[in-house]
Specification:
Elements: E1 2-8, H1 9-29, E2 37-42, E3 49-55, H2 66-82, E4 95-96, E5 99-100, H3 109-128
Antiparallel strand pairs: 1-3, 2-3, 4-5
Length: 134
């Protein structure tokens, strides 16, 4: 079974490429963490439409166990470190939804992750305003 996504325009092109490339790398360091990426590209019939294809995973309505997510993230970090990866960035633009992520070179996975979290929180605050609760 296959899953697919389709997007329009240049941002859609970058999103599909980023998803395909990042899932290929994740698959190397954390087997079965994400669906297997199959392909991405531009539709022949309409060059403004980009498509991404991956294996489809059957999902149920249960909330996944947090321990499994944490284990897979730790596994990915462990195997990438064992492969000699000491600095972190990505060779293509990636996205969180339609928002571009900053892939500037970082000296640790933790630094890259913290920077991404700060960026997401800043975007949320800029869009929704500062929370009155402290």
């Amino acid at each position: 079974m296959n899953g697919n996504s389709m997007m329009l325009g240049e941002n859609g092109n970058n999103m599909m490429l980023g998803e395909f490339e990042s899932m290929k790398v994740i698959e190397i360091y954390a087997l079965n963490f994400t669906p297997h990426p199959i392909a991405w590209g531009t539709l022949e019939a309409d060059s403004s439409i980009q498509s991404f294809w991956s294996d489809l995973r059957k999902m149920d309505q249960k909330v996944p166990k947090m321990e499994n997510l944490c284990f897979k993230l730790a596994e990915m970090r462990k195997y990438s470190h064992a492969a000699g990866i000491k600095q972190f960035r990505f060779h293509v633009t990636t996205h969180n939804g339609s928002l571009t992520q900053d892939n500037t070179l970082s000296n640790s996975w933790e630094e890259l992750y913290a920077k991404a979290m700060r960026d997401m929180l800043d975007l949320e605050e800029n869009h929704e305003g500062r929370s009155l609760k402290r």
